[in-house]
From TrEMBL:
A Pfam short name: Peptidase_M32
Highest classification ranks of the organism: Bacteria, Pseudomonadati, Pseudomonadota, Gammaproteobacteria, Oceanospirillales
Catalytic residues, chain numbering: E262
Function as written in the Swiss-Prot or TrEMBL entry: Broad specificity carboxypetidase that releases amino acids sequentially from the C-terminus, including neutral, aromatic, polar and basic residues.
Molecular-function annotations in GO: metallocarboxypeptidase activity; zinc ion binding
One of the GO biological process terms: proteolysis
Similarity annotation: Belongs to the peptidase M32 family.
Protein name, UniProt field: Metal-dependent carboxypeptidase
Cofactor (UniProt): Zn(2+)
Cofactor mode of binding and number, as noted: Binds 1 zinc ion per subunit.
Length: 493
């Protein structure tokens, strides 16, 4: 048996444990009675320890060295590279740091749930200080291994190969045109009448409607399902993808588009190459590329005029409301493209969303690089919020820097993925238009040509290439914010 084959078997074994872990996690969020929580947490923690042990076994270092001397195909070399990346990631941090982070993160996140409601920045800061300090320690260890700045080393966990120099270029450009575009869109929409949903919309009916929309999007129900959870997500494994949503019986708008979004994540997973199943090279390329799929489904397909026609027809049927003007095509389109300045990222529309992300990116970059102190964050948040959206968060911590869960347990470097995904999606659209009549495919109800393009260029490529290579092979160039601008101007002006 070659060393490459030994490594392959080893990583497939790790994958089986991760499979079990994913299903336990989905069950905990979607099905489990409250009384099961403690035992489940213990079972999942035990599995994590086991996976960590498998991922850091001492003989792996020798296997990697020997495998590098073997004759490998291009795909096998890529596979070896990705296994090694996961191995380096698993072995990089000392165990006591990982444990301290896990403890400080859980404590901070748990207390944050009530501190946020109470607008208690001082209380939060006491716990968060520790989380930030440990994250900076992690960043400095990663940075010396990768030869990057501390923040870039954290970014690498979610966006391998992407640097803050690249992000600065992209985001600074967006900042030059976004504020004006938001103002123009708001002025245009101010005079347009819109009918807001008036419940009630029973959850069962919303689910039935969601399943119809998933069929239109060719979700593979033999390899996945739809359930409910408090925080919507896409989990499971490629052969059995679990997506969830949450229903508001007063308003169907968000849940319905949430299902479109999660279906995009799910189809990427379902479309990953079977030949590399269970191997790191067969996994999604990055968080940003994952989000590029969910946002292609949501923003490029889901909120298009052509797709809204389907949503209008299907929702009228589902709610038996053929005469209800709320479901009329032009009203639904307005509901799904309405721009509003607000404090909260997760409630933000497509156009103001990047402003929320860029603000977070700039703060976390400077925080992890040691340019600013954790106590500077509320003031900086307020200043940046005023500059980008004209809103002040002075003394309003709960709608400011305390609103997201990400930083409470040290997930620094994650936020850029959202806007990178939106930018990639716009760029795919530009390229896809050259060979696919996207609107015609959507209107016909057979969206196969769109999915075939995504499958050929993104899903089937998994992690065979770096992100830049993947995107260049798909679109002819690396990420370029001009496509995003063109898309937003086309939709909102
Ligand atoms: Zn997503």
């Amino acid at each position: 048996m070659s060393h490459y084959d030994k490594l392959m078997a080893h990583y497939q074994s790790i994958h089986h444990f991760n499979h079990a872990q994913a299903m336990l996690g989905w069950d905990a969020a979607a099905n489990m009675p409250v009384g099961g929580n403690d035992a489940r947490s213990n079972a999942m923690a035990e599995l994590s320890v086991h996976v960590h042990r498998l991922s850091t076994q001492p003989q792996l270092a020798d296997w990697f060295e020997s495998a590098q001397q073997e004759t490998l195909t291009d795909a096998q070399s890529a596979s070896l590279r990705e296994m090694k990346r996961q191995w380096q990631d698993a072995t990089l941090l000392p165990e006591d740091l990982v444990q301290a982070q896990s403890k400080a993160g859980s404590k901070c996140e748990h207390a944050w749930r009530t501190q946020r409601q109470e607008n208690d920045w001082q209380g939060f800061a006491k716990n968060w200080q520790e989380v930030v300090a440990l994250s900076k320690e992690e960043a400095s260890i990663r940075a010396s291994a990768l030869g990057t700045t501390p923040y870039d080393a954290m970014l690498d966990k979610f966006e391998p190969g992407t640097s803050s120099a690249q992000l600065d270029g992209l985001f600074d450009e967006v900042k030059t045109w976004l504020p004006e575009l938001i103002e123009k869109a708001l002025a245009k929409q101010a005079s347009e009448p819109i009918l807001l949903p008036q419940g009630s919309y029973p959850a069962d009916t919303q689910k039935a409607l969601g399943l119809e929309v998933m069929k239109l999007l060719q979700f593979d129900f033999d390899h996945g399902r739809l359930d409910q959870s408090v925080h919507p997500f896409c989990g499971g494994v490629p052969s059995d993808v679990r997506i969830t949503t949450r229903y508001d019986e007063q308003d169907f708008v968000q849940a319905l588009m949430g299902i479109v979004h999660e279906t995009g994540h799910a189809r990427y997973e379902q479309g990953l190459p079977k030949a590399f199943a269970g191997l790191p090279v067969g996994e999604a390329r990055s968080m940003g590329i994952h989000e590029s799929q969910s946002l292609f489904f949501e923003m490029q397909v889901g909120r298009s005029q052509a797709f809204i026609e389907h949503l209008s027809r299907l929702s009228q049927q589902a709610f038996q409301a053929q005469q209800d003007p709320v479901f009329a095509e032009d009203n639904l389109y307005k509901l799904y493209t309405r721009v509003q300045k607000g404090f909260i990222r997760v409630d933000a529309d497509e156009l103001t969303y990047p402003a929320h992300v860029i603000l977070r990116y700039e703060i976390e970059r400077d925080l992890i690089n040691g340019v600013i102190h954790y106590q500077d964050v509320p003031e900086l948040w307020d200043a940046k919020m005023q500059a980008s959206l004209g809103l002040t968060t002075k003394d309003n911590f709960k709608d400011g820097c305390m609103q997201d869960i990400h930083w409470t347990d040290g997930a620094f470097g994650y936020f850029p993925s959202y806007t990178l995904g939106a930018m990639y999606a716009a760029q795919y659209k530009t390229k896809m238009t050259q060979t696919v009549d996207i609107d015609a495919a959507i209107r016909s109800g057979d969206l196969s040509p769109i999915f075939q393009w995504l499958s050929d260029h993104i899903w089937s490529q998994a992690s065979l290439y770096s992100t830049d290579e993947l995107v260049t092979r798909a679109t002819g160039e690396v990420l370029n914010a001009a496509h995003f601008r063109k898309h937003l101007e086309g939709r909102y002006l």
